Amino acid sequence: MMKNTILTLVLALSLAPSAHAEGNAADTFHLVREVVIEKGSIPDPATIERLNDEDFVIAGRMPKDKAAWATYVDRNGTVRWRYTMTSVNPEPGGSYPEFVGAMATPDGGVLLCGRMDLGQPRKPAISGMLVKLNETGQLISKQFVTPQAGSNVAQVSFLDGCVAWLGGFALTGGVTRYAAGGQRTDFHWIAAVNADGTVKWQKLISKQLVGGGAPGQVRSMPEGNLLVSVMQGEETEVILVDAQGELRARSILPARFRLVQSLNPQANPELFACYGGKSRGELVYLTMDLRISKETDCHLHRVTAAVRLSTRCNCIA
């Protein structure tokens, strides 16, 4: 039997930290509509990006087809276009290629970022990729991005995400290098990209937390800064870099925190962590130099909306 993937668009009428009763209608999510975006295919979504006031791009991969995948859905729930990209090298297996982010371009198109394996089955070479599409989802250009490494250095790089930044875009990820003697060094990888998709510069910043870890998150900050957070084990490393890619602040938080994407571009950094069997959580507010300014404990409650379950957080004083 064919399976459908359903995207549920949810409008939050209001959601404010409070100690209100769970039945307070003003403090819940309301289901707006459900939109079928794929029939007969089973995509693996990695991200949903809001491009403007009400339009979205959902992106990830099609595992069965071994293709990166993205779909544009407008404010009425209409699928405007669908784009897939197979590997330029059909030999490697695994989960690549895939898209991990999407950004609106000034000409009305979309810039997709992702990763692709350009290596061999037993010698992977994961590369970041940038794919530019026009307003109807037609390919304009594609390019591969990876940090340069010396001849005696083995390197593994992963592009984790992208965000609009300084009139262009920023790419972020992680790089691990192995010297000839086997010594390992882990880095944050940051690249600045012009509005036309060309790469201006790339920087590597040494990590304090080393190892595999989860894909990082990124947010544009005031004064041209960039905030990057990466979970490793039971800790989270957060860094702030300036418009030239220079490190300005760093903080290590003692839990697995997710970066909150605030609708206010001037807001200070906020991160959220679930714990206690995902029934409780903690919201942490940071200063612009990444010092903790406030911590708030939260209870998570299940809320039924049609046939789906979602969560909300009532922060308790």
From TrEMBL:
Keywords: Signal. Residues 1-21 form the signal peptide. It comes from the Bacteria. The keyword Signal applies. Gene3D superfamilies: YVTN repeat-like/Quinoprotein amine dehydrogenase. InterPro entries: Quinoprotein_ADH-like_sf, WD40/YVTN_repeat-like_dom_sf. This is Uncharacterized protein. It comes from Paraburkholderia ginsengiterrae.
